[in-house]
Design a protein that fits this description.
The structure is a single chain. This protein is mostly helical. The protein has one domain. The chain has five helices and no strands. It has helices spanning 4-14, 22-65, 71-77, 91-97, 99-142. The chain is rod-shaped, with a radius of gyration of 25 Å. The two termini are 48 Å apart.
Amino acid sequence: MSKLEDLEKLWSNDCKVDKSELDNEALRIPELHSKYYKLYIREKISLRSYEEDSKKLYKDKWEYYNGKLSQEELKEKGLEQFPLKILRQDIEVYIQADKDIIENNLKLAIQKEKVDFLENIIKNINSRGFYIKSAIDFLRWTQGTI
């Protein structure tokens, strides 16, 4: 799993097109696509894992705030019995304000941003051939070779 900043730096280097080597840049497209698609798949799998972990964490917190965990389960999770009796309609407020839920939501949001970032990179790479062809056509036109 990569950090978002690492992906940004990686793309910052790979997104550059050497205008004097447009033929080589065109040949580099499949390599870039493969590289970023592999990263995308790994990050997408991590996102799915975070989403599934979120469901389990939510269930655990729901049981905790509803007082449905046994003493053994509380001890297993390193928790004390929640001291308040919460109305059913207020449980969601407690769950959403729980520090574990907040941390998990932040990790999930960062992971979604990485996946979105990689999706946009792949779209850019898929369009790169068109941009390179346009640049070559423009060079031909400005040099009068059309």
